[in-house]
Amino acid sequence: MPEKVLLVDDEEDFLEALAERMQARGMEVSTTTSARDALKMTEQESYDAIVLDLMMPEMDGLEVLKTIKNRNPELQIILLTGHATVEKGIEAMKLGAMDFIEKPADLKDLMEKIKKAQAQKLILVEKQTTDKIKKIIQSKAW
């Protein structure tokens, strides 16, 4: 099953080039240049990984990360930035980012991280399902 990825970056040329390279390697890729559109897209679709730019004009990546994680904690988010600082990296990890990568990212490394994100998401969804089943079984007086 191909990895389903959402790429979010306000640099349209970078976004198109990265999406083409990832699609050529078998990934199912959606893109947007808007942080607000990304939030809408994550409400309507499920993704194995979201690769999110840190610096965007309408809303910064940390704010988007925080909103997405509050709504869907199982979503795996990789922050990508050309303006990395240790403080931003620590803040991103505290907010639940899976990883924090500096541009230009090595495509092979990024794809490996996306595959790990897909595996991590599957584990979290399986755990959530198991917990729901346990609650249902415990609530019944069988």
- Overall geometry comes to globular
Order of helices and strands: EHEHEHEHEH
Q: Provide the β-strand percentage band.
A: 15-25%
Q: What would the average pLDDT be, to the nearest integer?
A: 91
Radius of gyration: 16 Å
Number of helices: 5
> What structural class should be given to the helix and strand makeup?
alpha/beta
**Distance between the first and last residues' Cα:** 38 Å
Low-confidence stretches: none
What does this structure look like?
- This protein is an alpha/beta fold.
- It is 54% helix and 17% strand.
- It contains 5 helices and 5 strands.
- The protein has a 5-stranded parallel β-sheet with strand order 2-1-3-4-5, sandwiched between helices.
- Helix 1 (12-24) links the parallel strand 1 (4-8) and strand 2.
- Helix 2 (35-44) runs parallel beside helix 3 (61-71).
- The protein is globular and about 60 Å long.
- The model has no long low-confidence stretch (mean pLDDT 91).
Can you give keywords for this protein?
142 residues; alpha/beta; 5-stranded parallel sheet; 54% helix
Secondary structure blueprint with pairings:
Blueprint: E1 4-8, H1 12-24, E2 28-32, H2 35-44, E3 49-53, H3 61-71, E4 77-81, H4 86-94, E5 99-102, H5 107-139
Helix pairs in contact: 2-3
Offer a quick outline of the entry:
The chain is α/β, with parallel strands linked by helices.
